[in-house]
Design goal:
An eight-stranded mixed sheet has the order 6-7-8-5-9-12-11-10, covered by helices on one side. A four-stranded mixed sheet has the order 1-4-3-2. It is built from three helices and twelve strands; from the N terminus they run βαββββαββββαβββ. 21% of the residues lie in helices and 30% in strands. It has a single domain (7-56, 64-171), classed as Roll (2,3-Dihydroxybiphenyl 1,2-Dioxygenase, domain 1), CATH 3.10.180. The protein is globular. The two termini are 24 Å apart. The chain has 172 residues and is an alpha+beta fold. The chain has helices at residues 15-26, 74-86, 138-148, and strands at 7-12, 30-32, 38-40, 49-54, 65-69, 90-91, 103-106, 112-115, 129-134, 152-156, 159-163, 170-171.
Amino acid sequence: MAVHLYAVSLDADDPRRLARFWSGVLSREVIDDPHEGVALGGDVHSDFRIRFLPSDAPKTVQNRIHFDLTSASPQAQRDTVSRALALGGRHIDIGQGPDDDQVVLADPEGNEFCVIEAGNKFLAGCGPVGAVNCDGTRAAGCFWSEALGWPLVWDQGEETAIQSPRGGAKVT
């Protein structure tokens, strides 16, 4: 039996509010999710959903996953940052340096994400969500490559990335 990446799920104090934020940032449609939450449907770049599941557990540490959003131009990066801030996001410091070209933000519930600078070759052609970054090891990347049938598109040291043969976001 083939394994399919159906959704990336985030805990949310207010799932509908968080879905509206991400819908505004990513221009994805908010849909009801059959598993007690709310979700964003896929887009032309990837078919996985982003699910928001109710949780009353407080966020106490940096998430084990975060999104890297892509930018087609410096103005597009500024526009994405402005849109996220207008929708309730905020700038955060996770240790990035002053010379970093990416902008690090948090959504209204504190979930970290990066808006990557234009011209990033690694994420070129991936779509608005360029990568879903996860904590893990090379062994975990190889496991998911095999389980999903997605090729390794990056394999260096303990860092790996896989991507659907159809394209879309990389899972790093």
